[in-house]
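Bug #2210: token dump truncated for Peptidase A1 domain-containing protein?
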Amino acid sequence: MAASHLLVCVILWTYYYYISHGGDDHGFVTVPTRSFQPEAVCSDSRVTTLEPSRATVSVPLVHRHGPCASSQDSDDPSFTESLCRSRARANYIRSRASATGGTVTMRDDDTKVTIPAHLGGAVDSLEYVVTVGLGTPAVSQTLLMDTGSDLSWVQCAPCNSTACYPQKDPLFDPAKSSTYALIPCHTDACRNLAADGTGCTSGSDTQCGFAIKYGDGSHTSGVYSDETLTLAPGVTVMDFHFGCARDQDGPNDKYDGLVGLGGAPVSLVSQTSSVYGGAFSYCLPARNSEAGFLVLGGANDMSGFAFTPMSVEMQTFYVVKLTGISVAGKQLDIPPVALATSKGLIIDSGTIITELPTTAYTALRTAFRSAMSAYPLLPPNGDFDTCYNLTGFSNVTVPTVALSFDGGVTMDLDVPNGILSDGCLAFQDAGQDDPGILGNVNQRTFEVLYDVGHGKVGFRAGAC
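Reproduced locally. Full output below:
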């Protein structure tokens, strides 16, 4: 969630890779309106086709509030609340990414580990979770998966109800683990936390403290710690560094913590790069009743991927260059300079809605509204100006939307769940000169492979 979780409200080749979800020749797909609705029953049938290699472990990824989650919350955030929090998160990410930063490079390696992941019904700003084991013996922890932040953390005992928020599982208790250890102050591991906020705890020279303050004033703090992380049966990460949090403030769901997948040294990706090569991928399922996966390591078979160049900004954020957009099979007339000055798109698993530079968004909105003119357009609602009342329609004909990236890569977004969210166009205006963000709605059903060592990101359609 970048240090921002739960915030307040072209060089073209002579050919193209097309990553398609099966739109028709006319650029429209007719879908039943029930495909927009959340389902009550979990189905992981598509995940069972994932074949792990000898060096691979698969961890399911599910939606935070969907039926695939191990427990259900009775107080899911409303769609409006979720979008408000997502928008504020995006604003914070852009403010950090606009600053001057370096580039992270990690070595290549052939080994990999795969972890299951899941999606849920009520769309919240940090909605995808994985379940891993922490400690010895391993205790299950349900963690938000976030490419926009680095430090992983869980709530730890002892922590009373005023200091920690209610979560679905018992608090992780370091005293019950034989492998838990505090990370000493004045060590390289502690100094690596400098970007997130750290230091020696008050009155002590032995404990490395961490503190993260988010854009809405909420915070997470505690002691930086060392523990054994179990990704799957028989697959463990020894000496995993994470935050043992004992003081929280601000809005939170009932997750147990967060796993950071950004590019900085403290992230899970960086900590395991000597084994998994610094590469990882995931597939975010389109619906809350389906499961996806999180993979540490490179893909066994690259043939299904189309790759575009990627950079890592501020050590954390993964950035690609948008070169074009099409609606209903027709390329939009967007001046190249309008995309070139946008500083690229940050790929973020925790932001819901994709944010585009003003010129690109305006062209997309105009074309999409024209293609959807048969359906009642609702009055603008905050930042969302293209939402539809689909009540009474048994089927809806949705125009295809495709995003093109540097290197001639084109993503044909999933119809309808990669284009519409709760009846609204899953795009917003980011401002003309600000970095854009590729949100998780557009990423749904694609395996997104981050090959940091080779400076590229790949997309494979229909992966979950």
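Output looks complete on our side. The mean pLDDT is 78. Marking as cannot-reproduce; reopen if the truncation happens again.
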